[in-house]
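tokens incoming
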């Protein structure tokens, strides 16, 4: 989907996604001291807003002006400041380093995904962390929801391979389950999760 498609999807007053943070983000940051954080392809901003509520100096970047408008309103409602950047993450460079970089459900074809992972892995400061979560390849056949195009799905191993040469040390790389309510009861979506750290110099 391009910028215009996402603008259409985000149109309307209601949030497309929940206002609550991603469960894996909450879990992965529980042991981290707040610092600077970058939410890549932040959408309506729920995760960047939550990070700001936890004391992080949060930046959220997305190419949808409509989504960022909703993100700004959410931050105002929650009483936090977030630096919102309107940019296409496929071409944007952060121009600095962050203590935490998160890429949550950024589903792109493999060549674009690898390039983005390399770019934003490079934005992780010494001692900082990278968190990547997305719809797992096996979700198409064994899970529920998410994109139905296998070209934009990936595994934790795919992410780890893309991070080779980045200087990051992988702390966790696995397939995880995420309960989802459906018309047929609760089912599990399958996600790929990778958390990595850049060693202190």
């Amino acid at each position: 989907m391009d910028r215009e498609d996402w603008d259409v999807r985000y149109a309307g007053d209601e949030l497309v996604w929940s206002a609550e943070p991603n469960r894996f983000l909450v879990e992965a940051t529980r042991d981290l001291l707040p610092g600077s954080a970058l939410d890549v392809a932040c959408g309506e901003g729920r995760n960047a807003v939550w990070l700001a509520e936890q004391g992080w100096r949060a930046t959220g970047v997305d190419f949808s002006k409509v989504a960022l408008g909703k993100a700004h309103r959410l931050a105002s409602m929650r009483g936090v400041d977030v630096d919102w950047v309107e940019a296409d993450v496929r071409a944007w460079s952060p121009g600095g380093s962050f203590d935490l970089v998160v890429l949550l459900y950024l589903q792109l074809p493999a060549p674009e995904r690898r390039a983005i992972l390399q770019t934003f892995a490079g934005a992780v400061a010494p001692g900082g962390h990278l968190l990547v979560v997305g719809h797992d390849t096996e979700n198409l056949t064994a899970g529920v929801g998410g994109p139905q195009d296998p070209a934009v799905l990936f595994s934790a191993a795919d992410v780890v391979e893309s991070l080779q040469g980045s200087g990051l040390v992988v702390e966790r790389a696995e397939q995880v389950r995420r309960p989802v309510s459906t018309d047929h009861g609760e089912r599990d979506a399958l996600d790929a999760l990778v958390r990595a750290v850049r060693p202190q110099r």
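note: DSSP finds seven helices and seven strands in the chain.
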